[in-house]
Design the sequence.
């Protein structure tokens, strides 16, 4: 899917609706910040719902924490990454490897970050990511080894947990919803 944030411009969509339809990609307008991004297979997407009142009402610090967790995760994989002032997200080899778009209402966050692990580059070529004339990259493109998605997930959750003091538990969807037959 391709999503447009609150400041999104359809001028940053570089292909026709027919091309999107052939690729099975839908368009959505969403309430997060930022412009346009792609969400698809091979991305690790984390949308933490956090009450920032308990974290000093520091939205910029929250975004920096998400970036830092992604940077540390990539470092564990042997990928050097960093931030760019004024551009939320994470960059590696001069290309965007993680997008961040947050929506806050009543100091509670929604939306979050998408880290490219092994994304189809043709799909990103359909947009100007975040409204910028930049290339995107996936972790698998920057390593000389396979990048198991589960390993990246576990690394990122570990870094998020340490950075924010979060504890994660595995939950089965049916259990979380109280069972399908109840």
Sequence:
């Amino acid at each position: 899917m391709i999503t447009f944030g609150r400041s999104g411009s359809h001028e940053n969509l570089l292909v026709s609706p027919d091309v999107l339809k052939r690729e099975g990609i839908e368009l959505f307008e969403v309430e997060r910040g930022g412009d346009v991004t792609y969400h698809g297979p091979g991305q690790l997407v984390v949308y933490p719902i956090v009450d920032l009142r308990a974290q000093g009402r520091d939205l910029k610090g929250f975004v920096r924490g998400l970036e830092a967790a992604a940077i540390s995760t990539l470092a564990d994989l042997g990928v050097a990454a960093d931030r760019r002032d004024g551009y939320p997200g994470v960059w590696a080899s001069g290309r965007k490897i993680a997008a961040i778009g947050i929506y806050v209402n009543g100091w509670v966050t929604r939306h979050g970050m998408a880290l490219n692990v092994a994304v189809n580059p043709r799909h990103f070529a359909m947009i100007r990511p975040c409204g910028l004339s930049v290339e995107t990259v996936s972790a698998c493109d920057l390593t000389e080894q396979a990048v198991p998605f589960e390993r990246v997930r576990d690394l990122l959750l570990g870094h998020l947990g340490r950075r924010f003091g979060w504890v994660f538990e595995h939950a089965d969807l049916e259990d979380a919803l109280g069972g399908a037959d109840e």
The two ends are 32 Å apart (CA to CA).
